[in-house]
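[Target chain]
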Amino acid sequence: MPDVSAVTWLFVPGDRPDRFATAAAAGADAVILDLEDAVAPRHKEAARDHVVRWLGGAGTGWVRINAAGTPWYADDLATLAGCDGLRGVVVPKAEDGADLGAVGAHLGIDVGVVALVESAVGVHRAAEIAASRGVDRLAFGSIDYALDIGADGTWDSLLLARSALVLASRLAGIDPPVDGVTTALHDPETLAADVGRARGLGFTGKLCIHPAQVGAVARGFAPSADEVAWARRITAAADGAGAVAVDGAMVDRPVLERARRILAYGQQRAGGST
């Protein structure tokens, strides 16, 4: 079973091999070599060749393939199969569980599959997609989804879709979903706000489109020093005790479990990222 629990997912265009090493060194948990939206149709085949060459050498990474039904989909899968450096694929325009299952079956159990949900149909079928054989995680294609439904792309307009992906992931027993990109490249306040809202909803990762976003996203999903201190107080007070009060609030089982998850997250990240 592949490890798909990455927090920071950094895109790099597949037709820019000069940027592959830079992206790999940016500190992201997962690098996505993009064959889809970042690559013009006339450059698709060349981009695929660049990516396969990288993955067949010393490079590793994920690949966002082209969507099912496009002229490049079948060749993407056929060419990537067997690449030693392939960690997984991001499947765009995810709407059909059977198609996603076929991707996983074709690439094998050691290759992860992230379903990128970015349409009204995809959100409507989120539970089916999350439960599909071979799907390891969901991600939200917020920009394409907003276009599909005619929304303005504000947080409120996309709240239902985000919540649907979190719920579907929980019901399917897979990792919580990865949130969509923040297009503001030089606006740390907007990025921090987006990460905070996504984390508050239950997301545990985010797609990044520039190396400068990686560190801020990682910090945003990590528990703050105050949260860690609170969690330690909770677990210490509740150790072997019945009902207790900490900081003037009653500690019951859900509160204790949240404190334990905060501490476990810190230990996991300290032990190494995916």
